[in-house]
Amino acid sequence: APRDHALIAAGVALLATGAAVLAAGAPIAWLLLAVTTILAVAVFVPGWYEGRFFEPLPVISALILFYFVTRALQLLVSHDDLYSWFGVPSAVNLLLALDNQEIAQYVTGKLAEPLEPAMTRALGAMALFMVAVVAGYYLPLGRRLGRPLSRLGRGTDRPNVPVMVAASLLIGAVAQVAILARAGGPGAAADNMLGQKGGHAGIVLFALASFAPVGVLIWAAWRRPAARREWVAFALAALEVCGFYMLIGSRGGFFALVLVVAVSWHYLWRPWRLRAMIAAVLVFVVLSGALLGIRQGTAHHSIVRALGDAPAYIVDPRGLLADNTQFDTLFIATSAIGHKLHFQHGGWAINALRANLPGAIDPGKPQPGDIAFRKSIWGSEVGAGRPITLIGDFYYDFGFLGIALGSLLFGIAIRALLGLVGPGPGAGRTYRVALYAIALFVIYSMLSGTYSLTISLLITLLLPFLVAVHLLGRIPVRLGRPVAAARQPLPDDPGR
Question: Can you give the pTM of this predicted structure?
Answer without folding.
Answer: 0.86
